[in-house]
Amino acid sequence: MSTRTRENDEAEPQRGYWRWSKQDFLPEESFQSWNNYVSALSQTWLRFKDRLFSRSDDATETEELKKQSEHDMKRCLNWWDLIWFGFGAVIGAGIFVLTGQEAHDHAGAAIVLSYVASGFSAMLSVFCYTEFAVEVPSAGGSFAYLRVELGDFVAFITAGNILLESVIGSAAVARSWTSYFTNLLNRPKNSLRIKTNLKEGYNLLDPIASGVLVIASVITIISTRKTSFLNWIASAINTAVIIFVIIAGFLHADTSNLSPFLPYGAKGVFQAAAIIYFAYGGFDSIATMAEETKKPSRDIPIGLLGSMSMITVIYCLMALSLSMMQKYTEIDTGAAFSIAFQSVGMKWAKYVVAFGALKGMTTVLLVARLSQARYITHIARCHMIPPWFALVHPKTGTPINATLLITVASAIIAFFTGLDVLSSLISVSTLFVFMMISAALLVRRYYVRGVTSRENLVKLVMFLVIIIGSSMGISAFWGLKPNGWVGYTVTVPVWFLGTLGMSLFLTQQRVPKVWGVPFVPWLPSLSIATNVFLMGSLEYDAFIRFGVCTVVMLIYYFLFGLHATYDMAHQQQMLKSKVDHTETI
Q: Can you give the residue ranges of the Cationic amino acid transporter C-terminal domain (predicted)?
């Protein structure tokens, strides 16, 4: 038991974990009566202005907010665990399912270039995440980082996208699990799903996907350490299968299948890159393990950078082996690798691949349950959702309530929604969050409250607007005229000059204590550009869904989140004032 927990036990009687009173869900002043709520709504604009640029700090995110959970999570992980968590979180539905889908529909044999482009962009984001994870080792991950650097409102929008990414990502992997399980049993593609008369994309009900999510959640609730051990075993088996796929694929390679290499042109390559970015999306899970890592400053950089470097190489080799085994027009969009081996006479190999894919997707779900529950926990600590979800169980040291929330939501969506609908939506959310993290890192390096002058703050904002705006211009021009070049002669130099201006006319105000991103501002700026570019390569429908979800988030924020966080912030200020006054006396 931690020192803080013992102090709490001595100060007041410990309350049970399972409790359901209104104070556990809505303790804020604004929700104590209908009149209070109406009064709070009438002050929405004033409260919004108050919270818009209200920023947290490192100590609040890493120490103060943990008190909301009442018990600490157990520090039981090291760099070896994090590397395997990286493998477990990332290698799953993306490489085994989306590779075939995107090679067939968008990129052709050039799918390997799509993985190179996505991998490059992901590595840039990994650098930014690593610095934040070392400097602000919190279970909140990107949500905590953005609260510190860009304020409550931006953090909430990002939190909404994190939740969207978490729920939909898990549902997509669970649907893929059913597809590969069906293939392993040698049954028709959708034979284990229930067909209905609902709209296409939602008409195949998947009870197996929902069941797998529930089982994974039960395992992660029991123990983080035991989940890590199980992840080691499953990831080791999955790695053996991957080595088999790469070697066997190249042994049965036919270089004629690579022609034509770019059947859909460069636009198809980047459109596929934006979709398969989903395959890299799990690396941010490692950052949420900071509160359970023994030495975050050492273990997190090794875990993040080590696992992602190896995964990028593996993805490119697997994509190339698939393209050389089978022509892109013949690649199966549901179980690409299994059918490809069947086409070259290795019918038995499809069972090995299906088994390995199932193992990979199982570890993705296990690690996702861990990381997503910790996101939820930290968001609840800030009262953006009811604080009941922030509680950590005293015996297991895991956030059971948060795990239940994410599991129920994912299981419902997985039951109804097809993979093609899920993958395009999740890519928008993932790219948006990674872009915001890169921008936040530039703010962290060049702005410190009470130190940076107003003149330099204005310059920083101006350069950020130029970088983001020019990146959007590059992306827009690519979408409108992918074979043109005139627009790039304006947008690319503007991006370059914006980044150069930040480098020459601003001085970095903060030096990382342990590990930092090299070549600032160039690497974060390039990360912004590549993430925005890949976002622009997605189809129109993905942004419609993304826009609808964002509007729903904003409605929730102005009706609930804003008032809950406003009340909590002012309550903390009052307590701090009392403590300061007492110390002064």
A: 515-564
Please report the DSSP string for 104-150 in residue order: IIIIGGGHHHHHHHHHHHHHHHHHHHHHHHHHS--TTTHHHHHHHHT
Q: Which letter does DSSP use for residue 383 in this model? A: T
CA separation, residue 572 to residues 69, 239, 575, 578 (Å): 16, 48, 5, 10
> What CATH code is assigned to 56-537?
1.20.1740.10
Report phi then psi at 77, rounded to 5.
-115, 150
Q: Do 391 and 70 form a contact (C-beta atoms < 8 A)?
A: yes
CA 336/CA 97 separation, integer angstroms: 7
Peptide bond into 521 cis (omega under 30): yes
For residue 245, CA distances in Å to 55, 252, 328, 341 come to: 48, 11, 18, 9
Strand runs labelled E in 410-561: none
**Cα-to-chain-centroid distance, residue 581:** 42
Helix, strand, coil percentages in the chain from 3-state DSSP, rounded to 5:
75, 0, 25
Q: Give the chain's mean pLDDT.
A: 84
* H or E stretch covering 194: strand 194-195
- Please give, one letter per residue, the 3-state secondary structure of 295-349: CHHHHHHHHHHHHHHHHHHHHHHHHHHHHHHCCHHHCCCCCHHHHHHHHCCCCCH
pLDDT for the residue 93? 57
Give the side-chain half-sphere CA count within 13 A for 90: 30
Structure confidence by residue, pLDDT tens digits, 454-509 = 899 999 999 999 999 999 998 888 777 766 677 778 888 999 999 999 999 999 98
First-to-final CA distance of the chain: 33
**Degrees to nearest 5, angle at CA 351 with 345 and 356:** 125
Q: How far, in Å, are 256, 264, 429, 494, 515 from residue 325 at the CA level?
A: 10, 19, 33, 43, 42
Could you give the 3-state DSSP secondary structure of residue 191? coil
User: How far, in Å, CA of 120 to CA of 409, rounded?
Assistant: 32
* Single-letter code of the amino acid located at 353: V
Q: What are the extents of the domains in the chain?
A: 25-53+543-582, 56-537
Segment 214-272, tens digit of pLDDT: 999 999 998 888 888 888 888 888 888 888 889 988 988 888 888 888 888 888 888 88
Tell me the per-residue pLDDT of 525-558, one tens digit each, with 9 for 90 and over: 999 998 888 787 777 777 777 788 888 889 999 9
Is 216 within 8 Å of 362 (Cβ atoms)? yes
Rounded to whole angstroms, the Cα distance separating 170 from 477 reads: 33
What does the H/E/C string look like for 52-69? HCCCCCHHHHHHHHHHHH
Give Cβ neighbours of residue 210 (< 8 Å, ≥ 6 apart): 174, 411, 412, 414, 415
Res 349: pLDDT? 82
Cis peptide preceding 260, ω within 30 of 0: yes
Q: What is the dihedral of CA 410, 415, 420, 426, to 10 degrees?
A: -10
Dist. CA 475–CA 488, nearest whole Å = 10
